Amino acid sequence: EAGVTQFPSHSVIEKGQTVTLRCDPISGHDNLYWYRRVMGKEIKFLLHFVKESKQDESGMPNNRFLAERTGGTYSTLKVQPAELEDSGVYFCASSRGGSTNEKLFFGSGTQLSVL
Amino acid sequence: AQSVTQPDIHITVSEGASLELRCNYSYGATPYLFWYVQSPGQGLQLLLKYFSGDTLVQGIKGFEAEFKRSQSSFNLRKPSVHWSDAAEYFCAVAPYSSYKLIFGSGTRLLVRP
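Structure tokens for the assembled complex are given below, as produced in the milestone run.
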């Protein structure tokens, strides 16, 4: 069984540019989560999809961030325009169900550097 | 506000020595508690979790953790550390039985040969 896959593994962009991160969850997992870790601090929740619907986007920092999950399969997280403080590691995770009785699987993350 | 504190940013232990990583949480009720590990280039992997029942939980790779309600702690332990345990360890809380996790800032473990 393939795990959660994230592309790219690293991205270096300049301030003001646009970057799109992609996450492919495990097949059959309706629940998809985005988290990020900024500057070695704690990992913070960004949002939660159930299939193609945003269940909870309370962690999205501002309107420069746009997450989509068209068709309920893979998800993208776009940052436009990127700012210096957006640098960090963006993690995606997926689970079959939405409760903590299910196991959550994490991808290896995308390291984003905004210069 | 709910929070998780991992007071040790770095810990260095010798191979074969015992290990304890500290985790304290702030939450009104008994939360769902987790320990994750991240090895270089890998995603976060679940070591163990506590929901209810026996306060000493066993996990993978020989790790265990003990929930102490009176101290709001969920410390991770291993009796004998292996070089392959060198990684970053994260304690997390799930306040609402969902995966809107609240993480601590992580503890990086270095293992001396």
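Chain B has no helices and twelve strands. The CA atoms of residues 93 and 102 of chain B lie 5 Å apart. Further analysis is deferred to the final report.
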